[in-house]
Amino acid sequence: MNEINKKNILEIENKSFLRKKWEKTLKDIIIKKIPKFFIDKKEIVFINNEQQINDLINPVNSEKNKKIKIIVLLTPLNNFIHLVGFLDKLDKIFNEDTKIVINYFSKSWKPLFSFFSFFKLINNFKESIYFSRNTFSNVFLKSTNYEISKQLSDVSLPFEIPVITKFLSIIINIFPFLSLFSFAKIYYLRKKVKLDKESKLMSIIVPCKNEEQNISAIIKDAKEKILFPYQIVFVDDKSSDNTYKNMMLEIERNKELNIKIVKGEGFGKSRAVDLGVRSSDGYYCAILDADLTVKMEDLNLFYSAISIGNGDIINGSRLVYKPNQGSMRLLNYYGNLFFAKLVSYISSTKVTDTLCGTKCFKRSDWEIFEEFRKANKFKDIWGDFNIIFSSVYYGYKLVDLPVRYYERTSGETKMKRRFFFFLNMLQICLSAYCIFKLNLIKPKD
Fold first, then answer.
1. 179 is in which domain, residue-wise?
2. How many domains does the chain have?
3. Is the dihedral of CA 27, 33, 38, 39 positive or negative?
4. Residue 377 CB neighbour total at 10 angstroms
5. Predicted local confidence at residue 325, as pLDDT
6. What is the CATH number of the domain that holds 94?
7. Which of 71, 22, 19 is nearest to 44 (CA)?
8. What are phi and psi of 15, to 5 degrees?
9. What distance separates the 2 farthest-apart alpha carbons in the chain?
């Protein structure tokens, strides 16, 4: 029998009333979690019947499938005839960036589904299986090239009941352990192993404000210690010293290197990085602070981690190792710990350091971070919080990479107005709390 014509799911076309309600509810939930950037470019597909599945896996559509960024399976995994086989097909068809949103009905709800089936409220198939998160992760997914990158916890009922559904969703977000009682589980899946062995260019974005003494050291370290194809993008954010002049001198001295200079507007690190990313040519981007408190050679670890698919966002963490003496003030250290705990709770994702200046991501994902920032009017001076919150919100896998943190050897720290910056970060976290925990999300245009 032709592979395409093999039946993939148990169900028939006549779906029950509750099932139709659930598909609509699920679609409404997912739409809020998808960047408008993808929706406008029609890079997302919703799948809810056998014909659509066959169209998805048909080789005739292979070129069209390469453009798809997100596949949303509205059909619950409980009803797939061979779940591992189906995920294996998707792995062979879609590229490394394509994510899959799946759902399945919780094992604890099986008696209630049997009850609904008895009264013909749902179609419950004898071959359907009900499984736990542990079985899904450690049995089904371990046999595939997929892993969970994000769980959506705010689901409680298969259909919307005014006020009650919203209330239950907020309670589950505030107390995530209560998601155990939700009737369905929703996860984002991403590929674990990427087969592309080509060494792709990484743009190292270096925002600079009065860093004249560090420019030559940055170039020297890059030449001696970087082991991957790279480009350096300096962003001079209206320096009042010889920073820009020294950048030009280094270009003249190192014509064999790929170096760009971008003039910033003096609006702070976040906007300087934005200009640098938009002016870069790399497939990947890494942000590196000009003070070299995180060493240049550590960028090799960031490149390895993202190029083999360990994560979508590689976040440097200075708080796993003990910071070197003089590298971080005691108050700053405990402030960093506080925000790491707070951001972890709000995003339901373990983050050990939010403010490390070294982060790595695909250049193409920058538009997604910026969309989130603009939609939620984040005034994130440093930009770190927005990258973390936006990536987690949209189901990207964030990985902390422990780095050693050293004392600045020249120039002055930019983290001087500590109380002002503390209030700014607290304000961003409050906004994120409203988004992640209270579901106060602005509808897409």
1. 3-191
2. 2
3. positive
4. 8
5. 74
6. 3.40.50
7. 71
8. -85, 150
9. 80
